[in-house]
Amino acid sequence: MRLTDTFAFATRAATGTPMRTALMMLAMSIGVAAVVLLTALGDGARRYVVGQFNALGSSLVIVLPGRTETGGVGASAFVTNAARDLTAADAAAVLRGADVTRVAPLLLGNADVAWGGKLRETMIVGTSTHFLDIRKLELAQGRFLPDEGFDRATPVAVIGAEIREQLFGSERALGQMLRVGDRRYRVIGVLARSGSGLGMNSDELVIIPVASAQALFNTAALFRIFVEARNRDAVPGAKAETLSILKARHGGEEDVTLITQDAVLGTFDRILGALTLGVAGIAAISLAVAGILVMNVMLVAVTQRTAEIGLLKALGATGPAIRRVFLAEAGLLSIAGALCGLLLGHIGAWGLRQAFPELPAYPPNWAILAGVGTAIGTGLLFGIMPARRAAEMDPVDALAKR
To answer: What UniProt keywords apply to this chain's record, in alphabetical order (predicted)?
Structure first.
């Protein structure tokens, strides 16, 4: 039997039983679609987080109060308590480092903001003029915080786009006096709409000078200090200078943790990469289940086509030729199911991108190749037993349907 005859025979057998063929393709396509969709979701989450940190620039050092023993990035780095608080004076001292170009102290808190009888609670950020460039934010109107010392509590505020829309509506926000807590600040700028990033929605922020925030919340402790090095190569030097300065200011005690953007990116990349592989592995289990279904349906098909197999053997078809016919049928059904699953997976990823535009939910190439390859391999593997059973049939018994 020629190769073309083998595939033609397998194709006619598959199309001759549409319900059986459809069920086998459905089982295989669900497995491939699950692999494509889940890896698109996991890889999209990884790209989103990495993109958020990349938006900060490649030369950023973040100073956290408190000390982690390993000096790396862990969950404790974000919740640790300070043995000694970071202060605005610490931030000003760090700015003297030779490899440091900009410093932005950061103090966070929630407070009520009100204007014209409208009131809502939102996050207040106390920082300096360099926060705009370090966070890569853009202004839609007005100007940002004035370039002045960290100890100047100038009563001015820059508001996010959502705050402007909710409180001022069609009214002009610039120049208006905004009440924050029990204090009043003149609005000097409005941020361009940019959405959420790093757990902070810049559209709903009210940004005031760090000294004003310290007075508002009655605390001198900073949440973080952002330190920007001259360039990427200067990051190690800026990190060492910052640590040396803070250690000298804190009585020789190394009670702060410094993390670089590369360390943060590396940590999140490894975690989310492992998560993506994990969900891909879970989804691949469904392909194994689909393979078992293929084997079961093929065994039934061998039983139903016993007389046909006997006739082929009586006409001279050899055992290996019969085996190739059934393997070809299993392979064709697996390929068709894999292609359908690939289409379904891409449709699902497209739906994710429509529902969450900020999430780049595109399936990685390795997941597509692995999903399709595993589906075809599984179909062929589980098709071996039915093919062998058909090939070993005795022609006389097969024609007699015994």
So the answer is: Cell membrane, Membrane, Transmembrane, Transmembrane helix
pLDDT in tens, 322-355: 888 888 888 888 888 889 989 999 999 999 889 8
Range of the domain at 346: 3-51+269-400
Question: pLDDT tens-digit profile of 28-51?
Answer: 888 888 888 888 888 888 788 777
Residues 20-29: tens digit of each pLDDT: 788 878 888 8
Tokens encoding 249:
């200011």
Both tokens of 278, joined, read 């994990």
Residue 201 and residue 195 in contact, taking contact as beta carbons nearer than 8 Å: yes
Q: Which helix (H) or strand (E) holds 121?
A: strand 118-127
- The SS3 assignment for 252 reads coil
Q: How far is CA 121 from CA 171, 183, 206, in A?
A: 20, 14, 10
Q: What is the DSSP letter of 84?
A: S
* Span 305-313, average pLDDT: 78
For residue 31, the one-letter residue type is: G
* Alpha helix stretches (DSSP H) within 55-190: 76-79, 88-94, 131-134, 161-168
CA distance 3 to 95: 76
Residue 396: strand, helix, or coil:
helix
Q: Does 64 reside within a domain?
A: no
Q: Is it the case that residue 122 has pLDDT exceeding 50?
A: yes
* Pair of tokens at residue 86: 């970071």
Domain presence at residue 58: no
Q: Are 29 and 338 in contact (CB under 8 A)?
A: yes
196 and 164 belong to one structural domain: yes
